[in-house]
Amino acid sequence: MARNRSTPSETPGFAQARARLDEILAEVEDEHADVDQLAERVREAAELIRLCRDRLAAARAQLVAVVADLAAVEQTVARDTDSAPAEDGEEDSDDADEDESASAGRLPF
């Protein structure tokens, strides 16, 4: 089976690393696998797993930051909407309570 190993200066992307892990798994599961190459394949797989875990952790951190930013925007919009005067000069408290409960947990856009 052809190897898709990256040179030391090239770090594979997540998709490439995942594809190579699938190749290694197929090689290891093959009953005619070269036992002499097994340790090398396991070492390569361990490096690729580490890389994938690092990429997943980085993506998770970015997603958490984006969600936090969106929550901050939602709070700002809600605060600005709550502090804006009613169009007719009077606020109907029953309508305000219904609007607030209907939009809870949803983005304002």
Estimated radius of gyration: 27 Å
> CA-to-CA gap between the ends?
51 Å
- How many helices? The count is 3
Q: Helix/strand/pairing class, anyone?
A: mainly alpha
Count of domains: 1
Taking the sheet with the most strands, its summary is: none
Low-confidence stretches: none
Shape: rod-shaped
How would you state the average pLDDT, rounded?
79
Which characteristics define this entry?
109 residues, mainly alpha, 0% strand
How does this model look, in words?
It is a single chain. The chain is mainly α and 109 residues long. It has one domain (14-103). It is built from 3 helices and no strands. It has helices at residues 14-29, 35-83, 93-103. Helix 1 (14-29) packs antiparallel against helix 2 (35-83).
Q: In terms of topology, how is this protein built?
A:
Blueprint: H1 14-29, H2 35-83, H3 93-103
Helix pairs in contact: 1-2
Give me a quick take on this structure:
The protein has 3 helices and no strands. The protein has about 110 residues and is mainly alpha-helical.
